[in-house]
Design goal:
alpha+beta, 11 strands, about 20% strand
Length: about 350
Amino acid sequence: MFNKLKAVENKYEELTQRLTQPEVLSDAEAYKKIATEHAEIAEIVEKYREYKNALQARNEARELLGTNLDEDFKALVKEEFEEAGMRMEQLEISLKKLLMPKDPNDNKNVIFEIRAGAGGEEAALFAAVLFRMYSMYAERHRWSVEIVDISDTGIGGIKEIVFTINGRGAYSRLKFESGVHRVQRVPATETGGRIHTSTATVAVLPEVDEVEVELNMNDVEVDTFRSSGAGGQHINKTESAIRLTHKPTGIVVTCQDEKSQLKNKEQAFKVLRSKLYEKYKNEQDSEVAQTRKSQVGTGDRSERIRTYNYTQNRVTDHRIDLTLYKLEMILNGDLEEVIDALITSDESAKLSVTEE
């Protein structure tokens, strides 16, 4: 690890020098490329230098402890020695995390799909609750939310919704939300006070660029149709809605939220590219091969990654055995504690593999 860190530090110093060269300063594109690479390894180098300073402090303290010291001064030096050692341990953990392979999608925007699962109208109402939760979480991070397609029940529920969350780092924070979410609560229509269990499935996809997916336009069937649902006088007057069918895979994407056919088409192609990217990536990677169906499950009540229990004010993430008694706060977008715990668990698992 330390050989790698030394190499990264040498690279950092080389890039620092190049950023001052006239030929780089006069070339905006070259400067941007080098500055980006410089910034990407800056934190690793900073932590590595902190580690070397702590190592030096510990070595100096060790040397002093080998000399004749009065008891009071010896106690101070011993304390410095122990503090430097603890600091080194903390920095070593940080450095291991920083050196772990980065998910290339982490800084990308996100495409979300939420579908009502088992539970009828109650499941559709829960899907609407989840959409609101993620929208409020995005708002806390000053990320934007755009609806691509929605099918509602007309009484507050959502059968299916596709939307994007646009913001730096969105995928890194939200990628663990894929799966079956389960709710346990007493529906407003339940006269006997019985608790009902319903589900909704969530899929989280990174938004990908055109260059990342080879898309043959001859393989895509493009249909236009009139939008349906709420929308005032515009609805049913123009065929602004878009349906894309990728013939080789059978993937279908619709977008009807925008009044402009051009905007709907642009959004629909974004979603299609992301779905194709996920499909091809999963096929190529045998270790993590999962079809989209297995990612979100079937929606059965027995399958779940997280349970939201209204009567107990409880949210439990079953993957990491985390239970929090602040349901209302979480449903209002306060997901930080859950997401931080999921990220920490993922990092710990990766560290374990690295250390083995």
